[in-house]
Design goal:
The chain has 3 helices and no strands. With 68 residues, it is mainly α. Helix 2 runs antiparallel to helix 3.
Amino acid sequence: MPIVTYADLQKPSPSDPAKTVAQRSLERMNDAAAPMPPGQQLPAAEIAVLQSWISAGEPQGACTAQVD
């Protein structure tokens, strides 16, 4: 399933239509048995970015480049 746009993240999850794709993605990122991306766990700081966005109500906004 492509996740490219804001609308893609807002769709009902095929595996749990009561949740958005964004919410289900976060669950998978935190699932040690079936992590997303497959075969590795993302750093907690990266997962926290998505968690914060979901907790804020998944607001639509402009993307900006992130500089490390």
